Amino acid sequence: QKEVEQNSGPLSVPEGAIASLNCTYSDRVSQSFFWYRQYSGKSPELIMSIYSNGDKEDGRFTAQLNKASQYVSLLIRDSQPSDSATYLCAVTFRRTGNQFYFGTGTSLTVIP
Amino acid sequence: ETGVTQSPTHLIKTRGQQVTLRCSSQSGHNTVSWYQQALGQGPQFIFQYYREEENGRGNFPPRFSGLQFPNYSSELNVNALELDDSALYLCASSLRATHTDTQYFGPGTRLTVL
After folding, report:
1. Which residues of A touch B (CB under 8 A)?
2. Beta-strand pair B10-13/B109-113
3. What is the pLDDT of residues A8-42, one digit of tens each?
């Protein structure tokens, strides 16, 4: 079992809709969770981090963390064509400190 | 822009050669991590340097080695290149080496091994 798993997609949503991206992880003793966006041919850029159970909102983005169920999700409201990218989930575990474990990413296409 | 820079942008090498990739961390950051990202995959952790010492290593062979300098910039060296080493190599810097610290990525170096 991989440490971090994501549905690779592709996920397609119409412009203005809500995109929902999910990520599950294997180790209950997890620490920190991060969502990155990666455009084709570019490097990952941080969207947001979340450390505690519950929701965290930043503009059109909401991260949701449920440690008991070992999943973290990202909601993108009012999706725009510029949101079309691959979304990477990253997790750190207590046993390995600051080492980031990434999922394979979910490809999102927002259709105008 | 994250303030993390990498050089070169692209590199083409042949199998068996050696390569050195460079990274300058964001101002004030003392920790640098290196990742390998193959096409269609997520980044895979190679190793991390904290205050000039290796601070964790992923599942990569010893021919992947690194250095961190007093100004916290870093190098990744790969010896005896193999075709499977073709990938995007990402450097990320963070303020410290604790588990809560966000890592900020540089633009990457695209390595092609022929």
Report:
1. 4, 6, 31-32, 34, 36, 42-46, 49, 51, 88, 90, 92-94, 96-105
2. parallel
3. 789 999 999 999 999 999 876 778 999 999 999 99
